[in-house]
Amino acid sequence: MKKVVASGLMILLVVVLGYGQNYIKPVAAMPDYNGTYEGRPNTGSARFTTLYRDNQDNGRTSSCRGEGCGRHPGVDIAVSSGTSVRTPLSGQVTASRCDSGWGGLVVIRSQHPERPWETVRQVFAHLRSRSYANGVAVRVGDYVSAGTTIGQSGGHPKLDSCAGNSTGSHLHYQIDKDDANQGPYFPSSGQLHHRDDNFLVTARTYNPIVLLQGGYTWAFSQNNNRELWDLFNWQSWGVSGDALWMDGGHDPHIRRGGLTHCAVRWMCSSSFAVEADTYKSVYLDLYNGCSAYNAKLYFTTSAEPYWSESKTIPYFPPAIGQFRGTIYAGWHPKWTGIITGLRVDPSESCSPWNFDPTYFGEIAIRR
Known about the structure:
367 residues; 10-stranded antiparallel sheet; elongated; disordered N terminus
């Protein structure tokens, strides 16, 4: 898609010329996070076997998979035992032990990457080894800088001596909010697979990869993969040429937030959970083939989980053509608490007789 910057906007618009994912990943092969099991396509060779606020029983209890369908407080990343594990954030080691449940466990007390006054605890679990690259053991009280190797992944119940409660090789990574209970936080076994409708997990933890990478990004770089975005009032659609395109009639729009089909036994959740006071911007890269009119962003929150005109943010693309920029959402009085869904309305009425699609090259929720 040709990159053209819209001008003359009536709301605060910051042009972004690039958004690099330059954060340190706990394992190098891990994909960027976009709320699917595969992660953001073409950004890593590993995959997420369990998402944030997901379940580990494949939806048997909650009847769905994905964010909000369980109370898993971190992400599970499927990597072979022996994979180097690094700390994305610097800090001081507060735990380093072989634990019956967590397996090889390292906890590092760090600063929130955007709030230097707030401390968080990084949790690395099911480690085969807890040692630096030079073989020296990681000990409580050690100060480690960002990017330091602090061990190797494990989790294989037969090959790793300190696998903990694990059925296969993987890294469990989570970020706890710091409190008097120095954790790590994990819900009771009887609650793990139930839906997190009351957001108990977000009260104790952050979505770890989203916190590191600065938000969610959906880039549609894989043919026929709409990355769990649902389409409404469409006549035809596809994903090709690094864009999701939709040809529609009256009020065509796309949205993420709710349950959707994802070619597995259970429904998939396309909801997400981002703190409104941290993630205040929505980035759009789209091209309108029909006349743009009454373009809006809709959003849902944990307090108001329904779509309504009271939770809309207007934006002003050209009548026909490219819009590329970041829309500031933090001014909206209802952009509070936890943001759980986003809907993009690029135009109100397209011609049902012409092929005048809208192309979505990238959508992101950012700090």
